[in-house]
From TrEMBL:
Name of the protein this chain belongs to: UspA domain-containing protein
Region (Disordered): 154-188
CDD domains: USP-like
InterPro entries for this protein: Rossmann-like_a/b/a_fold, Universal_stress_UspA, UspA
Annotated SUPFAM superfamilies: Adenine nucleotide alpha hydrolases-like
Ranges annotated as spanning the membrane: none
Length: 354
């Protein structure tokens, strides 16, 4: 069963937003509406409900009534959000579907330029909207996916409430070392300072993109540059690799120290090349790069404490091996406290300028 209200052709790419009535989907709607309005793209609002499994004859007879009431409830919610989008001058369509929310959003993403979902939303029909749903959409979407978590709040002007992202996992017994090894140049914009954030990992007001050394790295970087241009924010390209002797490099201290510059050069040369590409293609974007000794998940999660946005690809090599669908991606999505834009590097995307 489906209830669909359309205001544009289904062949027109749009901003796709998952709605379930939770605080998470409210945040996703606001972000999706902002992007749709700025880019002049139509907005597509999706709501789902789950058909219960029943065996008793009495409940089987009541099933049609439940499905009708559930669909009407979801559609009423979508109509409320649709009215808000219309009032904002954005073209909008809605779709109510029976079934799995993640699968529905993945299917709808085939006709989207951007999918937006809130993190850890709940409601009586869709269940946990962002946990399993966010993971499924980020991993399988046909377009970039923007995951919007609950933003940290603090009354303090000098300290963040967001927890320090200095551990590789909840079960970790020791702090994960993170050190800035090299950077293109110092930041030239004003930032807030926080007592519980190190200067090297303070990305206040910036967009941060995780850069691997794979063939598709340029796709991720240039889409991050478009996002930076959209919100008029500086862009920082970040790579990280564990270069310590306890990591996966060289246990021999002498050999390790001799090889360290060459190991770093692979990343820094790539970062410099990507930075120059961005400067040439997006001259209005302030761009720089940093290379860290540490795990990619730890560095990007820590960056999310202050950054406006963190951008990652679904598949990587070298310093960002395993993005996405692996432990690194799960750690970043689970630990990040700022929006995370996930770019499907294994599929063609269509988020480009006109």
């Amino acid at each position: 069963m489906e209830h669909t209200q359309k205001s544009e052709s289904s062949n027109v790419p749009r901003v796709l937003v998952g709605i379930d009535g939770s605080a998470g989907s409210e945040r996703a709607f606001k972000v999706g509406l902002m992007v749709a309005k700025q880019r002049q793209w139509p907005l597509r609002l999706i709501g789902t409900f789950v058909r219960p499994v029943v065996t008793d004859d009495y409940y089987v007879r009541q099933l049609d009534q439940y499905r009708s009431e559930a669909a009407n409830t979801v559609q009423t919610l979508l109509d409320e959000y649709s009215a808000r989008a219309t009032d904002a001058g954005v073209e909008v369509s809605t779709h109510t579907a029976e079934g799995d929310a993640g699968a529905t959003l993945v299917d709808e993403s085939q006709e989207a330029r951007l999918a937006v979902v809130g993190k850890r939303g709940r409601n009586r029909f869709a269940g946990r909207f962002l946990g399993s749903v966010s993971g499924k959409l980020a991993a399988h979407a046909h377009c970039p996916t923007l995951v919007v978590p609950e933003r940290w709040e603090s009354d303090s002007e000098t300290e963040l409430l967001a927890p320090a992202q200095d551990r590789p996992g909840a079960e970790a017994e020791h702090e994960e070392p993170v050190s800035l090894m090299e950077e293109s140049h110092a930041r030239d914009h004003r930032r807030r300072s926080f007592a519980n954030v190190t200067e090297a990992l303070n990305f206040d007001s910036e967009i941060v993109v995780g850069v691997d050394v794979g063939d598709r790295a340029a796709d991720v970087v240039h889409l991050a540059a478009e996002a930076a241009e959209l919100v008029k924010a500086p862009l920082t390209l970040v790579s990280a690799a564990p270069l310590n002797a306890q990591g996966h490099w060289y246990p021999n201290t002498v050999e390790h120290n001799l090889e360290l510059p060459n190991l770093r050069r692979r990343y820094t040369d790539h970062l410099e090349a990507m930075t120059q590409e961005v400067a040439a293609k997006s001259p209005g974007v302030s761009v720089r790069w940093q290379f860290f000794d540490g795990s990619p998940a730890g560095v990007l999660s820590e960056a999310s404490r202050t950054a406006e946005l963190v951008v990652i690809g679904t598949r990587g090599h070298g310093g960002f091996s395993g993005l996405l669908l692996g432990s690194v991606s799960q750690a970043v999505l689970n630990r990040a406290v700022c929006p995370v834009l996930v770019i499907p590097t294994h599929k063609p995307h269509r988020w480009h300028r006109h």
